[in-house]
């Protein structure tokens, strides 16, 4: 939301007028501005053949856009092919084809002309002449000397006609107000940092991907606390902290300020911040509805603010006891990955469902998210050519990990690589002049200079999942977020036996802590399979081994099983002996009482029995009685094992058929 600056003196009309006189070009200092036909923002032509109307939405003029809506939004290509051109009344173009400034005069006209010039130069969202004329009439009737004489929310509160027209007028008014305000404020950094609202664009800082470009300090009281918070925020930005991180810091101080207001506490000086006061705040925060991670963030933000304020002298007189300790943080429940169940993923990955995403950019981006597990911010800002082949020609994806602030390379699946190349072809066809981005946003982007936004992608995915009627195994509607695709990739890799350090590298985790969450899911999954294995195992004598998953020793047996599989993997079964103990039966597992096996090894056991019988015959013919006895014992054990395993296998087949 565009808001007026707080904390700056209002600029003199003469100063703003002088700046307007200096920057508004002659082509916009006229009563009516006629855009060039090829102007992609203010001009252009309707996509219907031979139509002279200026596009308003989806490449259609006002008249054709209304017809398209009235016909129930049919496929756009079919509508354009069948539609007849608009009939003009006489030879005079309509108000939608031009921008009429005759309803305003003086400085207001220059301000609207300057906003029109900025929109023309920025080459982003389209502007309709009807919207411009309606805003000009409302502004001209106000008898104000400048847009800045009235807060923008008061302008927006005026009547602008139908709801749809009002939305478009509000958007244009906010834009015009912002660019005029930018010109009035100028670029003095000290003046900008003195404001109670900071704008990333005005400060020359990189825009955050979620477009929340403002930091607000006006909710923080008393004044000395607000000033100290501003100084701290500036210090944090100078130290390289992300804009979003500093916004979270300010939210922590705003929360502390709300506590002071709720308890009617007026702190006249930093010396009023004491340990008992901090304890009262922690108790108040604990009784709010704020979730534990947010509470921890607010406590951590206040703790860092106090430490930096004491260290750098921003909080003179702050008591040494005014400290927040580690034990003041609420405990965190063990987090588990929010992966998407395979039943749901099957629907999301189905080709027929993906094809219902009409926007190719969103479709291709969705596939890349599913295949790679990239964070949505990193995926949206992929460069146009992100593929690099490794030494054997396998495609790798180069991307910037904004959390680790480093470029990374990860191997691509064949499907992901093919999708990237399809998207490159789509971008070349849509924007022949090229783009720096692999996923440019579709609208308000004639030169493909802006990547698609994460918020827009999330909104489109929600609508798509509703369209395909996404449901879980219980038949209930379900939704999957882009970040859940990331958790799903990690969980899938863990379940396939990929080492944790490899997954950490592939997903770009700064520490193994997050990757360890996927291992927790893996243990749960494998434990279920382990319980099933335990119920189907036999020993060397062919006897089925009992197992109670509810027994007190089941957890210890599970740990022993995991360690044993790492230490000794056998070709025909598993060792049930703890790996800490030495094995007295090397290379003689079929005579070892610790040997265990399951029906999956039946084929191996049959081949080994046949080979053992041949060895037994050879030993008897050679007169080697001791060797023959060993082979005979192995063959006997194998016969018992095979007989029992065949019985278990037949039972499993019968159960599956039933």
Structure notes:
With 658 residues, the chain is mainly alpha-helical. It is 51% helix and 5% strand. A 3-stranded antiparallel sheet has the order 5-6-7, with helices on one face. It has a two-stranded antiparallel ribbon with strand order 1-2. Helix 21 crosses helix 22. The longest helix is centred in the C-terminal third of the chain and has 33 residues.
Domain count: 4
Biggest β-sheet description: 3 strands, antiparallel
How far the N terminus sits from the C terminus, by CA atoms, comes to: 63 Å
Content of β-strand: under 5%
**Rounded mean pLDDT score:** 82
Number-wise, the strands total 9
Number of helices: 25
Category from helices, strands and their pairing: mainly alpha
Report the principal-axis shape. extended
Low-confidence stretches: 1-12, 89-93, 563-572, 577-587
Helix content: 40-55%
Rounded to the nearest angstrom, the radius of gyration is 35 Å
Strand order of the largest sheet: 5-6-7
């Amino acid at each position: 939301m565009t808001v007026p600056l707080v904390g700056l003196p209002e600029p003199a009309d003469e100063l703003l007028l002088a700046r307007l006189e200096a920057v508004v070009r002659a082509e916009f200092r006229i009563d009516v501005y006629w855009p060039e036909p090829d102007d992609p923002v203010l001009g252009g032509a309707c996509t219907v053949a031979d139509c002279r109307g200026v596009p308003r939405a989806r490449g259609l003029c006002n008249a054709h856009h209304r017809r398209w809506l009235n016909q129930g939004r049919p496929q756009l290509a079919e509508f354009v092919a069948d539609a007849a051109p608009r009939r003009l009344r006489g030879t005079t173009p309509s108000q939608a084809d031009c921008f009429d400034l005759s309803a305003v005069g003086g400085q207001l006209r220059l301000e609207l002309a300057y906003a029109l010039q900025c929109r023309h130069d920025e080459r982003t969202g389209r502007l309709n002449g009807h919207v411009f004329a309606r805003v000009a009439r409302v502004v001209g009737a106000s008898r104000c000397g400048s847009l800045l004489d009235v807060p923008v929310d008061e302008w927006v509160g005026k009547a602008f006609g139908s709801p749809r027209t009002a939305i478009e007028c509000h958007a244009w008014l906010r834009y015009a107000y912002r660019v005029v305000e930018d010109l009035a404020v100028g670029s003095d950094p000290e003046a900008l940092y003195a404001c109670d609202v900071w704008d990333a664009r005005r400060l020359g800082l990189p825009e955050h991907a979620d477009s929340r470009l403002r930091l607000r300090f006006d909710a923080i009281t008393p004044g000395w606390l607000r000033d100290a918070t501003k100084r701290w925020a500036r210090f944090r930005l100078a130290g390289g902290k992300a804009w979003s991180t500093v916004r979270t810091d300010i939210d922590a101080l705003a929360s502390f300020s709300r506590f002071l207001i709720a308890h009617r506490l007026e702190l006249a000086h930093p010396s009023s911040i004491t340990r008992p006061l901090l304890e009262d705040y922690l108790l108040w925060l604990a009784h709010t509805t704020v979730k534990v991670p947010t509470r921890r963030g607010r406590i951590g933000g206040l703790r860092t603010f106090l430490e930096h304020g004491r260290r750098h002298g921003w909080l003179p007189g702050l008591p040494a006891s005014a400290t927040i300790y580690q034990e003041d943080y609420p405990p965190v429940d063990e987090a588990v990955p929010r992966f998407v169940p395979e039943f749901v993923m099957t629907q999301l990955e189905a080709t027929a469902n993906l094809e219902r995403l009409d926007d190719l950019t969103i479709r291709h981006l969705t596939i890349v998210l599913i295949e790679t597990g990239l964070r949505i911010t990193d995926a949206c800002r992929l460069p146009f050519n992100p593929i690099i082949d490794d030494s054997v020609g396998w495609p790798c994806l180069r991307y910037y990990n904004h959390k680790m602030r480093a470029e990374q390379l990860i191997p691509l699946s064949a499907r992901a690589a093919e999708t990237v190349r399809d998207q490159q072809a789509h971008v070349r066809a849509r924007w022949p002049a090229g783009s720096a981005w692999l996923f440019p946003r579709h609208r308000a982007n004639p030169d493909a200079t802006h990547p698609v936004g994460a918020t827009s992608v999330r909104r489109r995915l929600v609508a798509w999942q509703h369209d395909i009627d996404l449901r879980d195994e219980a038949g209930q509607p379900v939704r999957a977020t882009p970040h859940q695709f990331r958790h799903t990739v990690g969980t899938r890799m863990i379940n396939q036996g990929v080492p944790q350090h490899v997954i950490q590298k592939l997903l770009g985790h700064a520490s193994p802590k997050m990757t360890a969450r996927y291992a927790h899911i893996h243990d749960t999954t494998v434990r279920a399979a382990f319980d099933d294995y335990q119920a189907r195992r036999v020993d060397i004598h062919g006897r089925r081994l009992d197992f109670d998953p509810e027994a007190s020793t089941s957890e210890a047996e599970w740990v022993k099983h995991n360690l044993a599989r790492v230490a000794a993997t056998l070709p025909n079964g598993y060792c049930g002996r703890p790996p800490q103990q030495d094995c007295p039966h090397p290379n003689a597992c079929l005579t070892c009482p610790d040997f265990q096996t399951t029906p999956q090894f039946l084929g191996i056991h049959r081949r080994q029995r046949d080979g053992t019988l041949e060895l037994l015959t050879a030993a008897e013919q050679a007169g080697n009685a001791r060797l023959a006895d060993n082979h005979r014992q192995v063959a006997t054990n194998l016969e018992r094992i095979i007989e029992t395993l065949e019985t278990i296998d037949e039972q499993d087949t019968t159960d599956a058929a039933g």
